[in-house]
Amino acid sequence: MSLTGLKKNLDLGIEEKRKIIEYGNNKIPVYRQCKLLGLSRSSLYYKPKETSESNLKLMRLIDEEYTRAPFYGSRRMTAWLRKKGYRVNRKRVVRLMKVMGLEAIYPKPRLSVASKRHKIYPYLLRGVTVTRPNQVWSTDITYIRLKKGFIYLVAIMDWYSRYVLSWDISITLEADFCIAALEKALLAGRPEIFNSDQGSQFTSEGFTGVLEESGIRISMDGRGRALDNIFVERLWRTVKYEEVYIKEYETVMEAVEGLRRYFIFYNGERLHQSLGYKTPSQIYYGDGNKGDICSSNGVSKGAEEAGEVVKNEVKCELTPVALRVPSINSHNN
Known about the structure:
3 domains; single chain; 333 residues; alpha/beta; Nucleotidyltransferase, domain 5; 5-stranded mixed beta sheet
């Protein structure tokens, strides 16, 4: 294995770099491999501590309240928890919201944080009218609670039909599970434009490379544009209220099975008022067809190995005829 020059050229996350380390390599010692990979030795040997029961309980409460009131920042969330009888300070709430990927100001989850090393693409949807399936797809990541832990969920959605083309879960925020979801979605079709936020998972060369190789135009939300990906944001609220909070998953595998069943229901049976009381599957495939790609989604490698583990409101109206993408210039702090 040649590690020369990898520090500048490798576009990998910490977990991926750990896997490259060769502990039995007599020619290149571990400390030298870490230096070439741009990986600190503390990161190599670090093993995350299990989240305490008290923190998990607080995270569950924060998740529910944030889903109900996404405009709550850390100050309001701290005040709300204190009102509920929990002795917490704001520093602790800020730390927990950071773990969960919840932004303290805008109603936009920050599970995907931008990387300065990655190319940022322009936003292509300003003033665009979406009139057909596979014109625009979008993606996002959210936090899903378990009774004794949590996982992350990514989904890819067709804007016009609200059809969930694919989804995947992970116990880390590495880009791998997002790339896996994208590759599965491309089995169903190919969009003209793919929109995401500027998170490092979506700006990584692995993710954008799949899009570019498929001839898909890449669009990215601007910073502070909390409502640009509003359709996936609405999906997260729907999934949590109709599935996650009701089922109370015990394990990762239980969550996977529950989400699999729910997305089949969401696509093929759940009637949407904004779609003229039709299902996303009817709009995406046509009234006589029913797709089931979501039934094949499962656990990404990381989760499988773990085992048990507004201020300004913009109205977006969708009918089976056309969808007008809102033009949002900025959001006030």
